[in-house]
UniProtKB/TrEMBL annotation, chain A:
Annotated keywords: 4Fe-4S, Cell membrane, Electron transport, Iron, Iron-sulfur, Membrane, Metal-binding, Molybdenum, Nitrate assimilation, Oxidoreductase, Transport
InterPro entries per the UniProt record, alphabetical: Asp_de-COase-like_dom_sf, MopB_CT_Nitrate-R-NarG-like, MoPterin_dinucl-bd_dom, Mopterin_OxRdtase, Mopterin_OxRdtase_4Fe-4S_dom, Mopterin_OxRdtase_prok_CS, MopterinOxRdtase_cofactor_BS, NarG
EC number(s) given by UniProt: 1.7.5.1
Protein name listed in UniProt: Nitrate reductase alpha subunit
Annotated PROSITE patterns: 4FE4S_MOW_BIS_MGD (PS51669), MOLYBDOPTERIN_PROK_1 (PS00551), MOLYBDOPTERIN_PROK_2 (PS00490)
Length: 1238, 449
């Protein structure tokens, strides 16, 4: 081997060097190797001590990171000399079973950088308040002697009020002490409730799963005083509205360990390594098991790195891709070939066999409504009866008779339905299609299409139809084939000639022109996908994410993808189905959390608001809509949106009881009760009468009137104004009343609202008090009037869970909250004490009229049959609370007792029980246990006397665990027993054997603990299997919470029909040029260019958190950047790292450019939640501070998201509501002066 | 035969997601202190890309590692030791701070304490070196995910070595991540460069360290290390480097980077090698023989002769048994799927890499075939020269054959396992086609997945 020129052993350098080294080795402390290459040493290494010292530490504490990160990773926090030093991941997750990878070490670089915040210079160490406000308050209080009167005095003076509002966000925060801060906060709340009503108080704090106690502590205060918690899942546009539409479920998804079970994985708009960092390893590992991995994304995203194939679809065109795949699946697996596994599945678990009436139009038919038992003369030999309007109908394959199978909504809330709400078809074989049925005839079907940029059109296709009880009907399956353009012999209409027919939706060739993905590729992938499902028993999975969900028409895209999964029998299977990972809604101990957070133990119902409509209304974004609500309607629409502005649609939805709206009415709800009682009337009837008479108005019908403004907003565990606020500049101007870079024009007169009052002058500065709690400085804290210093995640007790893994585990304080920081729990209790003290004088005991929307999973969802619009103000119906309008309830509030109630578990838990998804359990034993464990309140004469104490965060955590089925086996079994009475099939075996299992807080402190299978969720962990959603439905025959009890392809609501979305359909991105006059993508003049503006999630932050963290900044580019393609950058002379400015009507952003060939031309990315706090100079355009990523976006409310009162299309908090989508936006980008000032 | 034990690492690049958790946990544990702000014992590079410090692989410029003289002797590339001693006060081969990056912070305090003004307060960047405001223009990971691609990646020294054809293909985009720590080389050029004898390789586990008491701050080690994994603490004036977390290794814990790797791609283990063979192996004439030479230095821990020799050297029984059960020995020597990083530096690096299959596979889309089919994948591996040549420049001194062989094994494993996954008959010809048995393929799968 050795090959030296002199043939001897190899040597180093030359002879002189060797001599030198040989001499040297005797003076070297180590042992020099014989060949003189290197030095070895053993023992006595004083030089090593440095690193041993560095490593030494005193203790390791288990904790995690809260809010808005789906990871729920358990971490080891190292402490030395009372100082947090660093963190590494825990590695003690219970095993997921043999021959599979394990969950550990869950974590990511952001979490690993968290401890930087503890002692960072951006740490909020003390309470702060806006200097000008503090001066005013002190002066007024000194003058008037009472905090509430002092606050009222400031609010009554427009000059002083505007002065401190205008100072918001401009520095000038001063240190105050806790007592004074809390007193001001309490005074503002008391004054608001007294003067305007409790529904003028709002709280915002998202994602309870990630720190349930911290969330619940504040929400409990807001709800107990009668304030409204605004939703977050829909507001974040993380809610896939398709989920309630199709499944009747908020969202339920497989844990990431179930990816391993898949044999075909499609990542669609979900950049797993970045957004699900701790879980991404399953993806790489599943590939080694032979799983094929395909990704769909417009850019060469991180996840394409381990994909077998990349389908680079143009942004926002994913629906076209999915429709074309559906076309291939339907043609190859349902028409050309018959796959029993697929047809049996769709017959049993989907609405495909259900009958739909056809409505005649001049030149054909359009799909109408589901046929229900009420439409039949008789069925199954029974006379029509209870719940018939909610019982959907199929045709028996064998007899050809119309049959009403079990499981539809008509069996869910009726006495006669007990034991029949199930998917048991007995011997019934529902007919999928009428094709070939001698009793049928082919009729022309008209369907809307939206693929033409020039405007929507009408497709002429055909379905086989026949008469049932005098109505012309067809099946959903036949409608689907017509919609997808899958022709069959003998049907009228225009059909594609083949996959290569680009002229007809929805062929592979048709989609190629839209998505630019090759037709052959789409046909092949769709075939592989379905073939894999067939071969593997439904183990094709689609991981889908924000890249497709957060578009205006994200729900339509999702439905097209879900259709692929339902057709191929993948839903409800381990290793198959949808895996929507956007936001993490899964608070596994749901019932316990909800009970405490919503204060359901003391008073019901709570006020819960749809976030998007709240901000759309109160930030006056509605005043800048450039279009009317019917601009996006189907050409076949019946005109439900004609002449309406979107604000009118919001108001109509509220009027009809579909969606909540707070403030409720133009009057204080406590005064309404007083008035009613003074008039000797029932308050509910009184309110209905007042509405009928027009003497009482909905607040949302005149949102700019001062009496209808929200007044107090508390934000904790969140950065509303630096992160999620779509239309950030509208927030700044109208809600907060400070400077903004808003450039939009107001809606021209001819497009203004029909019903909602337009005030000439738009208000600026609606909120009296903005309160935030945080451990770091954000746009929200900078814009707040009072900032309370929060404990970090390493300084408190709390609980965490996620949808990504099946465990629940603890936060623990590694150190006590330093400086003057406090946990959210302690802060809210301090506020509550001050509030109660002031309330004794100013509020006392009051009665509050609470209005709530018709709720999903309650009889409210069967209030309005037929899915039709009946507006009591316009149509011939009366306002009847709980039927044609909101439900109304009178709630007594003992304001002086609020702090005691917060700190104890109320009696409604015992008397009314705990209800989740219509399953009620009675936790009497748990209440007794909690009393014994936590102690009881000892305050004779008070309503809290003898109740279990919840006066510490640990006790609250214990109560959450004790009151939830997932963490308390006894309640899990009881819940299933309760549910099986309704279903009529055994279910309790799913939890049986877990009765003795009570997960205690101490258990979660010791190690992540697997949860128990419970009726709170749709899947099963029984026997240690991996969690996949809807396995209980598929395996146990429990219905989905929908109209038919099955998964829905078809939605028959009037508004769905008017928007052309009864069936899966492709809807392209909203045209910002047509609606708002923005220039078209690609337009430019050499100095500027118009591009699509997308805000995907970043590698260096979890929303806005960590984007200011020095470690993350050091690993990236040190501040906000805009990613551009070399072609776009080249057109405007931008080089990598140049300063650029992005401008549209909504605002301005200044940042640096990152030029990469990873980006597609025509699209720019500003990664999500880049704030204005770090390295953001003044803009060239306006001379003011550049904005955040959401300075260029605004809210666009999709009317169909406001549907309510109808089966699965009914309101639930974070279950259904308009999404705060933001991806359809465009912006102009230009190179700005490279001289920047701050 | 002189048997020595070495704690070594294998990183499976196919599984690396470029998340940088390793970098952060390492930095938090070891170098988040004054003097080492710019130091990342562990860093992760996007490839193609310049790396950290930038273009460190350009040894014509930085002169790291060893070179073989015409006479077959091994000489530090930075110059013979005599010359280096003579030039001890002027070392021009050191990367400047700008080649790493100028560390910075922000005026965070302004966010809290700004007085009432006209604008929202902001934290402006400020140099941690000079204290002056600065525009951030380079970082420890500036070209992450092909950022600045067209302008920056062309300076990647590895990309420069591959053909023009490859450069053109590069426009079609491929990337992967390369996590790096100190290589704890068997033939460390940093140790050989140190004029103070302050650097040493621990005899029991091979960890290369700087004696913080003995270091005189000459910085020859910085030049000597071709991977630029020795850093200069500008506060203490001493060299510092990755310690392979010896305070953890010594008590039976894995390194921080291994334990916290969320991609689960790091394998840590023990190997035995013949110290007497190192120099000979490092001095083979043809660079392309270095991979095999390096493999040959590693000893079979199950060979009785080796075990006896190890005992003679005082290697404890539990260490011998650890070497026998070592996952990395299997990956390196038995399955031969792990390759050394830049063997042409002749330092005998001890962090090995399984090259990524993915940038090959994702190109299969152009061929329009199912990537699970072994035949298609093999075809792709042959046809798609881009990553293979690039990978070969990283791991085998440009020889594509060993890289090709690894990728075929990984591809075969996926094909074979797909049959298992779907409950089909397995096909023994798949493992046989890459020189493996069904059993060894299954065992390799268990180890990798």
């Amino acid at each position: 081997m050795a090959d030296t020129d002199d043939g001897t052993t190899p040597q180093l350098d030359g002879p002189i060097a060797e001599l030198l080294l040989k001499t040297g080795r005797y003076f070297t402390p180590g042992e020099v190797s014989a060949d003189l290459r290197t030095v070895h040493r053993r023992g006595g290494r004083e030089g090593d001590v440095f690193y041993r010292d560095r490593w030494s530490h005193d203790k390791v504490v288990r904790s995690t990171h809260g809010v808005n990160c789906t990871g729920s990773c358990s971490w080891k926090v190292y402490v030395k000399d009372g100082i947090i030093t660093w963190e590494t991941q825990e590695t003690d997750y219970p095993s997921v079973g043999p021959d599979r990878p394990e969950y550990e070490p869950r974590g990511c670089p952001r979490g690993a950088a968290f401890s930087w915040y503890t002692y960072s210079p951006t740490r909020v160490r003390y309470p702060y308040a806006r200097g000008v406000l503090v001066e005013m308050y002190r002066e007024a209080k000194a003058r008037l002697g009472d905090p509430v009167e002092a606050w009222a005095d400031i609010q009554a003076d427009p000059e002083r009020r505007r002065r401190y509002q205008r100072a918001r966000g401009k520095g000038g925060l001063v240190r105050v002490n806790w007592d004074e801060a809390v007193e001001m906060i309490a005074a503002a709340h008391v004054h608001t409730i007294k003067a305007h009503g409790p529904d003028r108080v709002a709280g915002f704090s998202p994602i309870p799963a990630m720190s349930m106690v911290s969330h619940a502590a504040g929400a409990r205060f807001i709800e107990l005083i009668g304030g409204a918690m605004t939703s977050f899942y829909d507001w974040y546009a993380d809610l896939p509205v398709a989920s309630p539409q199709v499944f009747g479920d908020q969202t339920d998804v497989p844990e990431s360990g179930d990816w391993w079970d898949a044999s075909y994985l499609l990542m669609w708009g979900s950049n797993v390594p970045v957004t699900r960092t701790p879980d991404a390893h399953w993806m790489a590992e599943a590939r080694y098991r032979g799983t094929k991995v395909v990704t769909v994304s417009p850019d060469y995203a991180d996840n394409t790195k381990f994909a077998d194939e990349w389908l680079p679809a143009q942004p926002g065109t994913d629906g076209a891709l999915a429709m074309a795949m559906g076309h291939v699946i339907l043609r190859e697996f349902f028409v050309e070939r018959h796959v029993p596994a697929f047809t049996d599945y769709v017959r049993t678990f989907t609405d495909l066999p259900f009958l739909v009436t056809l409505t005649e139009r001049t030149d054909g038919y359009v799909p109408g409504k589901f046929v229900t038992a009420a439409d039949l003369e008789s069925y199954d030999g029974m006379e029509p009866g209870e719940g018939d309007e909610w019982k959907t109908v199929v045709l028996d394959e064998d007899t050809g008779d119309a049959v009403v199978p079990n499981g539809s909504l008509g069996f869910r809330h009726t006495g006669s339905g007990v034991g029949h709400w199930n998917l048991d078809l007995g011997g019934l074989r529902p007919r999928l299609s009428f094709h070939g049925d001698p009793a049928s005839e082919g009729v022309t079907l008209l369907l809307p299409r939206f693929d033409d940029p020039e405007g929507p059109g009408v497709l002429r296709r055909g379905v086989p139809a026949r008469k049932v009880s005098g109505r012309l009907v067809t099946t959903v399956f036949d409608l689907m084939l017509a919609q997808y353009g899958v022709g069959r012999d003998g049907l009228p209409g225009d059909w594609p000639t083949g996959y290569d027919d680009a002229s007809q939706p929805y062929t592979p060739a048709w989609q190629e022109e839209i998505t630019s993905v090759k037709a052959e590729t789409v046909a092949r992938i769709a075939h592989e996908f379905a073939r894999n499902a067939e071969e593997s028993g439904g183990r094709s999975m689609v991981i889908m994410g924000a890249g497709i969900c957060q578009w205006f028409h994200g729900d339509a895209t999702y439905r097209a993808i879900l259709a692929m999964l339902m057709l191929t029998g993948c839903m409800g299977r381990n290793g198959g189905g949808w895996a929507h990972y956007v936001g993490q809604e899964k608070c596994r101990p749901f019932t316990g959390w909800a009970t405490l957070a919503m204060g359901l133990d003391w008073s019901r119902p709570p006020r819960q608001m749809i976030g998007t409509a709240y901000w759309y209304t109160h930030t006056d974004q509605w005043r800048y809509d450039g279009y009317q609500a019917d601009a996006l309607a189907s050409p076949l629409a019946e005109g439900h949106f004609s002449g309406m502005h979107t604000a009118d649609v919001v108001a109509q939805s509220a009027r009809m009881g579909w969606m909540p709206s707070y403030p409720q009415f133009d009057r204080n709800p406590m005064e309404l009760v007083d008035e009613a009682e003074a008039a000797g009337a029932d308050p509910k009837e009184y309110v209905a009468q007042q509405l009928r008479d027009g003497r009482l108005r909905y607040a949302c019908e005149d949102p700019d009137a001062p009496e209808n403004w929200p007044r107090v907003l508390t934000v904790w565990r969140a950065n509303l104004l630096g992160s999620s606020s779509k239309g950030n500049e509208y927030f700044l101007r109208h809600l907060l009343g400070t400077d903004a870079n808003l450039r939009a024009e107001e809606t021209p007169e001819d497009r203004r609202p029909r019903d909602v009052v337009w005030r000439e002058e738009a208000p600026e500065g609606k909120l009296d008090l903005v309160l935030s709690m945080d451990f770091r400085m954000t746009s929200t804290t900078l814009l707040s009037d009072v900032v309370l210093p929060a404990a970090t995640w390493y300084e408190k007790h709390d609980l965490s869970s996620t949808d990504m893994h099946p465990y629940v585990h603890a936060f623990n304080p590694a150190i006590d909250p330093p400086w003057e920081t406090r946990t959210d729990f302690d802060a809210f209790n301090a506020i509550a004490r001050a509030f109660s003290r002031l309330s004794a004088k100013h509020l006392g005991v009051r009665k509050d009229l609470v209005a709530t929307a018709l709720q999903h999973d309650t009889p409210g969802e069967v209030a309005q049959p037929g899915g039709s619009v009946r507006d009591w103000r316009r149509d011939d119906v009366d306002p009847v609370p709980g039927k044609t309008m909101w439900g109304l309830a009178v709630v007594e509030r003992d304001y002086a007792a609020i702090s005691d109630k917060m700190a104890s578990l109320g009696p409604l838990v015992d008397t009314l029980g705990l209800t989740t998804k219509a399953v009620t359990v009675k936790p009497d034993q748990e209440v007794a246990d909690l009393a014994a464990q936590c102690g009881v309140m000892n305050t004779p004469g008070s309503p809290v006397d003898g109740r279990p104490a919840l006066d510490t965060d640990v006790k609250m955590a214990s109560a959450i665990l004790a009151l939830s089925g997932t963490t308390n086996g006894r309640l899990a079994v009881e819940g299933f027993r309760e549910l099986e009475r309704r279903v009529g099939r055994p279910l309790h075996h799913l939890a049986e054997g877990s009765e003795e299992k009570r997960i205690s807080f101490a258990d979660t402190q010791a190690r992540p603990v697997p949860v128990i299978t419970s009726a709170e969720w749709s899947g099963s962990e029984t026997g240690g299997r991996r969690y996949a959603p809807f396995t209980v439905n598929v395996e146990e025959g429990k219905p989905w919470h929908t109209l038919t009890g099955r998964m829905h392809f078809f939605l028959d609501h009037d508004w769905m029909s008017d928007l052309g979305e009864c069936l899966p359909v492709f809807r392209p991105p909203v045209d910002m040029t047509a609606l708002f006059g923005e220039s078209a993508v690609g337009e430019g003049d050499g100095t500027q260019i118009t591009v699509r503006y997308l805000t995907p999630h970043s590698k260096w932050s979890i929303h806005s958190e960590y984007q200011d963290n020095l470690l993350m900044l050091s690993l990236s580019r040190g501040g906000p950047t805009l990613w551009m393609s070399p072609a776009d950058a080249g057109r405007i002379g931008v080089r990598d790292n140049d300063w650029v400015e992005a401008v549209n009507r909504n605002g301005v952003v200044t940042c640096r450019a990152t030029v990469s060939h990873r980006m597609p031309t025509g699209t720019a990315y500003m990664y999500h939640a880049q704030e204005r706090t770090v390295d953001v100079p003044l803009t060239e355009s306006t001379g003011t501070r550049g904005g955040i990523h959401n300075s260029l976006t605004r809210l666009l409310v999709k009317p169909t998201h406001l549907i309510g009162g109808y089966a699965q299309l009914s309101f639930g908090f974070n279950y259904l509501g308009p999404t705060g989508n933001q991806r359809d936006e465009v912006t102009v980008v230009r190179r700005r002066s490279q001289e920047v000032t701050y | 035969m002189k048997v020595m034990a070495q704690v070594a690492m294998v990183m499976n690049l196919d599984k690396c997601i470029g998340c940088h958790t390793c970098s952060v946990t390492c930095k938090q544990a070891w170098t988040n202190r004054p003097g080492t702000e710019y130091v990342w014992f562990n860093n992760v590079e996007t490839r193609p890309g310049q790396g950290y410090p930038r273009t460190y692989e350009d040894q014509e410029r930085w002169r790291g590692g060893w070179e073989r003289t015409k006479r077959g002797r091994l000489r530090l590339k930075g110059g013979g030791r005599v010359r280096r001693l003579l030039s001890i006060f002027s070392n021009p081969k050191l990367p400047s701070l700008q080649d790493y990056y100028e560390p910075w912070t922000y005026d965070y305090d302004n966010l809290i304490n700004a007085p009432l003004g006209d604008q929202m307060p902001v934290a402006q960047p400020r140099s941690l070196i000079s204290g002056d405001p600065m525009k951030v223009e380079w970082s420890a990971n500036w070209d992450d995910n092909l950022a600045g691609g067209p302008q920056l990646a062309v300076d990647d020294p590895v990309l420069k070595k591959v053909s023009d054809q490859v450069k053109l293909e590069f426009e079609q985009t491929f990337m992967f991540y390369l996590p790096r720590i100190c290589e704890h080389c068997l033939n460390p050029s940093c140790v050989a460069s140190c004029p103070s004898g302050a650097m040493y390789k621990r005899s029991e586990d091979g960890i290369v360290l700087v004696d913080q008491d003995a270091c005189r701050g000459w910085r020859m080690c910085v030049t000597g290390c071709p991977y630029k994994k020795v850093y200069f603490n500008h506060r203490t004036g001493k060299a510092e480097k990755c310690t392979l977390c010896y305070p953890r290794i010594e008590v039976g814990l894995p390194t921080v980077c291994s334990e916290t790797c969320v991609g689960r791609l790091r394998y840590l283990g023990l190997i035995l090698y013949d110290a007497d063979k190192v120099l000979e192996a490092a001095a083979v004439e043809d660079e392309k023989d270095l991979y095999q030479a390096q493999l040959d230095v590693l000893l079979d821990p199950n060979d009785e002769e080796v075990v006896e020799a190890a005992r003679r050297e005082g290697i404890a029984e539990d260490w011998i048994s650890a070497a026998q059960r070592s996952p990395i020995h299997r990956l390196i020597k038995e399955y031969r799927v792990a390759l050394p990083l830049h063997p042409e530096y002749r330092t005998m690096p001890m962090v090995w890499y399984i090259p990524p299959l993915s940038p090959v596979v994702d190109q299969v889309r152009d061929t329009g075939h199912d990537a699970e089919e072994a035949g298609n994948l093999f075809g792709a591996i042959d046809a798609l020269r881009i990553p293979i040549e690039y990978l070969a420049e990283l791991f085998t001194a440009g020889d594509t054959a060993p890289v090709d062989a690894v990728l075929r094994k990984l591809a075969a494993m996926r094909s074979y396992m797909r049959d298992v996954n779907l409950g089909r008959e397995t096909r023994p010809e798949i493992p046989a086609g890459v020189g493996m048995t069904e059993e060894s393929m299954h065992a390799m799968y268990r180890l990798l997945a």
